[in-house]
Structure formats: C-alpha cells, structure tokens
Amino acid sequence: MKPLAALGRxxxxxxxxxxxxxxxxxxxxxxxVRVLPRFSLVLEQLYCLGVLTMLITVVxxxxxxxxxxxxxxxxxxxxxxxxxxxxxxxLFLVRELGPVLSALLFAGRAGSALTGEIGLMxxxxxxxxMEMMAVDPIVRIIGPRLLAGVLAMPLLAAMFSAVGVxxxxxxxxxxxGVDAGVYWSSMQNGVELFADVLNGIIKSVVFxxxxxxxALFEGYHATPTxxxxxxxxxxxxxxxxxxxxxxxxxxxALMFGGW
Amino acid sequence: MPAPxxxxxxIVEAKDVHFSFAQQSIYRGLxxxxxxxxxxxxxxxxxxxxSTFLSLLGGRLQPSSGQVLFDGQSVAALSNNQLFAMRxxxxxxxxxxxLLTDLSVFENVxxxxxxxxxxxxxxxxxxxxxxLEMVGLRGARAVMPGELSGGMQRRVALARAIxxxxxxxxxxxxxxxxxxxxxxxxxxLIRELNDALGLTSIVVTHDVVEGRAIADYxxxxxxxxxIGQGTADEISRSTxxxxxxxxxxxxxxxxxYHYPATEYRRDLGLTPERAAR
Amino acid sequence: xxxxxxxxxxxxxxxxxxxGGLAALAMLAMQVSDAGGGGGATFxxxxxxxxxxxxxxxxxxxxxxxxxxxxxxxxxxxxxxxxVVGMDINAGYDNLPIDTSASILTAGLLGAxxxxxxxxxxxxxxxxxxxxxxxxxAIQLESLISQFMFSQGKSKPSExx
Lengths: 259, 277, 161
Prior knowledge:
The complex is a heterotrimer. Chain A has eight helices and no strands. Chain A is mostly helical. Chain A has one domain (2-257). In chain B, helix 3 (105-116) packs across helix 4 (121-134), helix 3 (105-116) packs parallel to helix 5 and helix 4 (121-134) crosses helix 5. The relative contact order of chain B is 0.15.
C-alpha cells in the first residue's frame, strides 16, 4: 500500500501545482493587459529576452542549416534527387527545427534567467517591497515579461529558420555545387506559406508562451533562498524543455496530420 | 495599565488576532494599540512572529480570526483597490532593504513617485533629492545599490519608504546586521523622521538597547500574545519573569534554554535503574 | 514614457531585433515559401492526361527548365475519365503557340514531378481557358518495369516516352 499512497500523494501534489500555475497564469494575463499602456516596460524585457538571445539563436541556426545541407545532400544524392535539397532543408527548418530548437535555446538562455531574476527578487524581498509600495508586481514585473516572451519567440524562431536556410544554401551551393536557382525554386515549389511557414510560427508562439509561463511561475513560487532559486531555475529548463518536445508532437499531429 | 491619553485615537489596533502559518500557531489572541504620532517598538524573541504583525498590517497576510484595524478600518476586509490605497499611506523598511537591484539609488527613491504619481520629472528630481538629503545620501544618487554598504542601503530604503510622505512607517528589524555607527545613524533617523514629518513609527526588533532608546511605547510579545507593555522605564521596572528574562538577556527562565526533549540520561541510554545501581 | 530606466541603446537594439525578426519572417514568406512566385497575374490553361502519376498541385510548369507557372488544379473529366490539369501560367509568358505540347516529367530518377511544355510553331498563342492538345502522360516506373519484363525478347513497349 505504501507505494500506492506515495503515488497518490505525488499526483495530488502535481495537480495542486498545476492548479497554482493556472491561477498564476490568469493573474499574469491580467497583468499583461494592464501593463500595455506602459509599453516601455515591455521594450525593456524585449531587450533582455530577445536581443540577448538573438546571437546564440542565429549562430545555432547557421550551424543547424549547414548540417542539414550536408546530411541532406549525402542522402539525396543516392537517389540523384539533390535538386530537392532546398526543399528538404527548408521543410525541416520551418516546420520543426526552427521552432523547436530556438525554443530550447530560449528556455536555456532566457527562461532560466527569468526564473533566476524573479526568484532573487523574491528572496531579497523586492517583490514584497513593491507590494508595500502599492505596486502590483504581477503588473509591474510579470506582465511585461510574459508579453515580451510571447513576442520574442516567433521572431527568434524565424531568424533561426531563415539563417538555417542560408546555411543549407552555403553548403549545398558552395560545397556541393547544387544550382542556386534549383535550390531556391525547389523550396518555393514545396514550402507553403500557410501550411508550413505559418504553422511553424504558431508553434513558436505557443512555445514562447509556455516557456515564459513556466519560467515566471517557477520564479514567483520559488523558495526564497539561494538554494530554492537555483532549484527553480533547473526546474524551469527541465519542465519547459519537456513541454516543448511534448507539445511539438501534439501540435505537429494537429497541424500536419490532416493536411 | 496603558496611559489613557496616549491611546485616545490609536492609528492601529489589533483585536484578538489569531494567526497560524504552516500548522504553527503564531498568534493566540493578540491585542495591542499603536498610538498616533509616536514611535512604538514591538519586541520579542526571534521567531515569535513580530514581523508577521507587519505583514498582517500591510494586508499581505490575513489573520485566521480577529481583526487588525488601520485608522478604524479592518485591513483584511479591504478590497484590492482599497488595500493599495491604504498602502500608499504606509512606508515600509524591510530587513534586507529590498532595493531594486537593477535601478540606481536615485531611481529607487523615485520608483514610488513614478509608479504612483504623474509628477513632472523636474519635481520628482527635487523630491528625490530632498528625501536623499534627509538620510544624508544625496551624494550617492548615481550609485547602484550593490555598491553601498548595508547601512547605507538601509538608509536609501528609508528614503524610498518616505518618498510618498506616508502617515506611518513600518520598520522590520532595522538594526540587524549593522555596525554600531550605522546603528546609531538609523536610531537617530527613525526618531528625527518621526518627529519632523509627524509620522507614526512601528519598529519591530529584538535589539533591547536600541529598542529601548527610541521607544515612546513598547510591546513585548511572547507565546503569541503581549506579555508586557509600557514606556521603556515601565518595562525595565517590570517584575514579570518573562519580561525580565528578555530585557536582561538571561539564557534560562520562563523561556527555556532547552529545546523540549526526553529525559537526558534516558536519551544517552543510561536508564534510571542502571544508573542507580 | 515617464519611466527613465530604459536607455537609448536598449531601444536601438530592440529595434534591430524586431527588424531582424520581421526580415526573417519576410524571407520565409517570400523567398522560402511559394507566396513570392504566386503573387503576379496568371492565366489558366488546361491539358488532359490519361495519367498524371505523382503530380501535385503547386508543382512547377517549366519551359526548357525554366519555371513559367505552376499547376493550379488537378481534377478528373467525368465524361472520359481523363485527368485535367489546370496550369497557371505567369501573365508574362503570353506567347506560347497553340500547338505547344505538355508532358509530365520527373526531376531526377525519383524526384518531384513537373509539367514540361514544349512550344510549337503556330502564330496563334494560348490564352486563358485554352486547352493544350498534345500531351504525354507521366511515366510510371512500375508499369515500365513490368512491360519491360513481360515483353522481353518480343516487341518493344507499346507506350514509350
């Protein structure tokens, strides 16, 4: 009976945490709406979440595109179908790798930083001090970060994919001599604006939302000690990475299954 | 026992407050009055829930039963907007200073002004410099909080707490972790600000010397209740053993030195029978 | 805004970030996907095939290896059960002779299929709604192989490209 009770306790605790996270999200959404008139706060966070993650995203995108170019060419040339290289690279990037990998990078770079920042603000009573100054931290701190995360993620994912396509071109055309026109036209013939590009963007918006939500929740509910904050940071990366990969499967099945 | 004229119009009143946190009962029928315009010191041993009172008063926690009244209004019954309006009349100095680490000293003091008012930038500048001058840190306006000593950080936090000209300032352990000079500065500031600005001050501390030095009125908490109250002299003359133990810093007394435990010799494996033999 | 904490440098960087992201989105839309090519005016020309093989909508229509349009619609003619391919030719190529022939070809051995147009010599040009008369269906690899195996040593395949 003991393991059963332990399982039950674990499930109950997980449910309670999920409930708390949903309640927190509702408040955070309210805060995002109320912070809109003060958009400079959002801009500030776009800098912290977007600009500071831009470099790592672009560099990673370039390398991933180059690897796709290499591997894609080696496989396609077996069927003398290297003319489809552009299509293969672009579809992989736009549908999957762009949104997913940039989201994983975002979780590691920006999500963990968010949790650490909020957790530390809590540990040093900055959030309590704001409350006592009649400033709602949900509006002043949480709202702009949630908005910035949701705005930054699709832009980062688009950069990742675009740079990746260029990386694939660099290898396909530069190293293997795939004709430039063939590379781009096979892509244009096969990649569809709505079914592929737009769905990829929708994915990245969802990922940005989930990562920021998890990061803010973990920070806001962190145990206010240095150990508690570091554990919360780890949880942010683990939880949001799992959510990205699991969510990607569900979204892919929904989006591309029927079409 | 309390002097009647002092409590004719109390600014804060706690009525039979019960409060427990994480299955631990912290207050069991707390009753106290805070006189308007005075420095009231609330003392008690560590962990007796002194700071909790400030959280109840600020509306960040709610009592399980009983009421905390501010200006005659129950804090727990306020709506969110009313609560925020009430907090604008209070300043609070946190133990860790709680300065916003990504803003300069100037911006920290300006923070409540920018958030709560629409004052023009020029006026905000004047007000901020005025408050910084009061705590003697006008020259440190461009510095980041992390570059200041703990005592100076606390003074910046004090300037921030009075930025909106509150009616009442709450001090949570303002003397903890300070060197004697900084401590003296804070004692002097609390008294000066209280009298010059016509504030009401509530100081929560376990430092007997400083607490006695600034108190117009003093409460001693223990076991979730008020165990002693009066002016500093009255408290010092008290004959109650709990009060005497705290004020004189005796290790053993009604508050026991030993954490509750089983009988010592039995714990060591020396049963009474064997020891007797 | 009244909040002063945000500096000029941050604003510029955020501007760079947003512009970069929008440029990447624009590139994905115009350069990577089909939205760029499909923007201009086109006219529709039909062609009947007995078999379109693996031809897809949006597949390119090429003349001499250059893309001049794309397949807009693939349907079936209910009367003779032949496949009807509607091709959207870019309006700029309005001088295709009416005796142009259409064939379904494959890029590489297993690559994607496309429609190849072989211009004729007439002086009248194809217009919107016209029909290409001479067509050649897709080569089906499996029927080609089976024909080859069964007819080995007898006669040549009846329908060869």
